[in-house]
Amino acid sequence: MADGTKKHILIVGAGPGGLTAGMLLAHRGFRVTIVEKTDRVGGRNSELDVDGFSFDLGPTFLHQKFCLDEIFAETGSKSEDHLEFVDLNPMTRLSWGDTALHTYSDTAKMAAEIERVFPGSSGGFKRYMSDHAVKFRKIYPCLQYSYQTLSAFLRPSLLRALPHVLTTRSVHDVLGDYFDEERLKLAFTFQAKYLGMSPWHCPALFSILSFTEYRYGVYHVQGGLNRISQAMAKEFEKLGGELRLESPVK
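RE: above sequence
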């Protein structure tokens, strides 16, 4: 742990980003205060209470759980010590009239399901997973850096990822490399809607979205995803951080 106790850091906003920064800085020995204008933590990942029932105001399921695991691990904890996760398998049930496809994060099980519903198409799925494992390894490191200087855009990791970034193709175009069946293309492209985009217009870069679900799974958090922010706030205070709610910054 670094000796940062002489510095006092103020973080505005107790959303997931502010809470993450607060946890990491407090763990490194800094004096940290998070101020939040509302009466609860979470920001877009908070909750709405109505007649004794709690509703998520933001996302309702979790994928790329390993990112959350890394945050807690950095502070010497485990996400499972604070939250109860439910691995959703099947993840979704996709229907087209009388045809239904269940999706799984188990590659072998998913390949078998595709072969059952769309005979002869499982090979394309296996190629998709193999190719996108390489694509993800190249792109993911680029998402872990700040780009506040021009030199940051010359990092070797970003240059290696450029062929996947600088393209005029869409997510739907990419899935055409693996599937002839239009319904299967849609099964692997509806994740573009997470970005508020059509798969016919969403840049090809984001074909990794469906890959992350099929590779790393989709989870429900018991009590709702707002519990993640609550758990982070508790860990932040446990690490010595100060949290001030109903404290707008003027």
